[in-house]
Amino acid sequence: MSTTARLRDRKAGAERRVSATRTVRTSLVSLAGLVGGPVGNQAGQEVGRVVDVVARLYGPDHYPPVTGLIIRIGRRRAFLPADHIESLHAGRVRLRTARLDLRDFTRRPGEVLLARDVMDHQLVDVDGIQVTRAADLYLAPLADRTVLVGVDVSLPTLLRRLGPRRWQVRPTPERVLDWQAVAPFGEQATHGPAEVRLRASRSALHRLRPADLADILEDLGRTERQQLLGWLEPEHAADALEEMEPGELENLLREAPPEHAARLVDEMEPDEAAEALRDLTAGERERLLQGMPSAEAAELRSLLAHREGTAGGAMTTLPLTARPEQTVAQVRAELAAQAEHRGDIPAVAVLDGEGRLLGDIALFDLAVAEDTALVADLSEWLAQFGPPVTVHPEIRLAEAADHLVAARATSLLVVDDTGRPLGRILADDILDALLPERGRLHFRRLLK
Known about the structure:
The protein is α+β, with helices and mostly antiparallel strands. The chain contains 22 helices and 20 strands. Helix 8 (210-219) crosses helix 10 (234-241).
């Protein structure tokens, strides 16, 4: 294709996009402009004023349909079903019948009052991975109904709403989020039915990385933060909590109902959970421990018994150990069953019948060994390169870091005076403890 033809096609494409944008803009209806606007009958006579728009926010539709309006007629507020509406235009509603069947508004499952409960409230932009506020909501016709299609989060829209009425009714879609990329928090604000839940497939929250969820949780208000935690599976929520700043995590655990906080801490990795509990008061810590299964609570109490800043205080318990008589294939099978702990298993400790340490097999060595090889033989072969690197639980972390660097290892085994492993301290555990002020930079928060 010649340069001229390419330029011609590019120009034609740009014209089509401009035309499409103009069409979308003209079809949008501003919720902010609609509220307070007149409701007219077929003869054009005003019969009331729009108070709010009701939409089925938590239903199966990708774009929530408008189910009706709340209108003010004199001193009365009544519900006007969507099938009574002929059209929604800029700041104005036209009815398709002169006869009004006005009903008292009773919320049905999934319904939300858009102006009261969504506009000007916090929401999560899942694509942009940030917390923002809805400056306006945009409605648009789709087939035979009106649906909620987007959220305006721009500053000009806020300024437009402060202007005269003729400005308020005109959409200014400079920065609009597609509704499918939004997780709103209207459910709790409206005291909706308990069975109503945001669909994870629409919000895409389950696809966010734990660090991204941690950023979002830190930016949300108290009510929205607890609601978001309620939407997540406990395991997913616990992963996000492990990425939070200590001060924010401390506040979150205090805000949450004790039974929910206990469940979240129980799902965290033991070393992360112990660090989170250290920041609470003794009474708060004990309440959470009493809400956990006895075995998990006992494990955390043993970790908390070690002083902060020591190897014992930063270690994680061993999720997997091996016996000399096992084959490599058997250990691999047990390793596969521990997939949720993949980040905490850099090696497998080999113990004798009395629980004393015999060796430490790195995952690479386990991966390249023959299936039928015995753990005892593999451990004996590795011994020629030196014994496992171990430290005492009361050693300071700075000294443990020196051992880690000298051995060029990724983890250290923490053993007691009898040579029995108590846990493992990972390289990132040492960094977390030695660099407590590093934090994660919240560029989005600073730029808001």
